[in-house]
Write a structure and sequence with these properties.
The protein is α+β, with helices and mostly antiparallel strands. About 25% of the residues lie in helices and about 30% in strands. The strands form three sheets. The chain has a six-stranded antiparallel sheet with strand order 2-1-6-5-3-4. Strands 9-8-7-15-16 form a five-stranded mixed sheet. A five-stranded mixed sheet has the order 12-11-10-13-14, covered by helices on one side.
């Protein structure tokens, strides 16, 4: 089932047309949340990020778009899909209504909520092969718009095709200054000895919720030193670990980059702490 502006409709319904701005202009925000029965992981963080992103894109925030309202709509959709007793992802898409030109006819918005069942109620460290390369054909713009989670994923799409054609599971994206920004599938963290490093938002990485939580966790630990700073491609092969964070997988360890292979010790340690934090939300 799909929730379209509060109306629950079958997933195979024809509910969008060519004037939809998410389709015609990429004028849409996406917020993916992870749920267990009766609870959304880090919901306040997701909600605040969504509201901030709508303001940046000059979308009109409806008066009823409270944290409670959107949470209720997510749970309604899950219940109609018979996933309310399962672990699931919900994808919330917010898009401006009407108009296929550059100038919107209105700043009013509509929303769509879709759901997908997941296997595990908490994050599990996936130790399967995850080989990556550097994608250098196109660059991430180092600006605030790159920090947003939108439907404009053309760079990630062509990068994913490159990765698939060359036998990689993911690629790292770079900005015009040739700094490593993030992976196609999430934010990047680099580990060297007790230093854990991740690119800053000013370099153009997405403002990921799990990135934020890992930064918070590391900041409270004596075992690691956190550094939010630009990462050069030359640092990658010298690292002890590389891992990628996103809301679906939590932490995904990278197993190899070119001739370098990596450990998973810090990723495993932080994943346990991330699960513990998720249980408190």
């Amino acid at each position: 089932m799909i929730n379209y502006d509060g109306e629950l409709i079958p997933k195979n319904s024809f509910y969008l047309n060519a004037t939809n701005r998410a389709f015609s202009s990429g004028d849409a925000l996406v917020e993916v949340v992870r749920l267990v029965p009766d609870r959304i992981f880090f919901w306040e963080d997701h909600y605040l990020r969504l509201m901030a992103s709508m303001r940046i894109l000059r979308m009109e925030i409806p008066m009823n778009f409270t944290m409670e309202f959107l949470q209720d709509q997510v749970f309604r959709t899950l219940e109609e899909a018979r996933l309310h007793k399962d672990t699931a992802n919900a994808r919330i898409t917010i898009f401006r209504k009407l108009g296929s030109g550059n100038l919107p006819e209105t700043n009013e918005v509509s929303y769509i909520i879709e759901t997908e069942k997941l296997d595990s109620p908490f994050y599990i460290l996936d130790k399967d092969k995850y080989s990556i390369d550097l994608y250098k054909d196109h660059y991430v713009n180092a600006d605030m718009l790159s920090n947003l989670s939108t439907t404009n994923k053309i760079l990630q799409t062509v990068g994913s095709i490159y990765a698939n054609e060359n036998g990689y599971q993911d690629c790292l994206l770079i900005n015009e200054l040739k700094n490593v920004v993030q992976a196609i599938n999430g934010n990047l963290f680099l580990v060297k000895d007790d230093l854990v490093k991740t690119p800053p938002l000013k370099d153009g990485c997405e403002n990921g919720i799990i990135r934020k939580k890992i930064i918070e966790i590391i900041g409270k630990l004596d075992a690691y030193t956190l550094e939010v700073a630009s990462i050069s491609p030359f640092e990658l092969q010298k690292a002890d670990e590389l891992f990628i964070t996103n809301i679906t997988n939590g932490i995904k360890p990278v197993t190899s980059y070119r001739k370098a292979s990596f450990q998973m010790n810090v990723a495993n340690d932080l994943l346990g702490k991330l699960n513990a934090l998720a249980r408190l939300t």
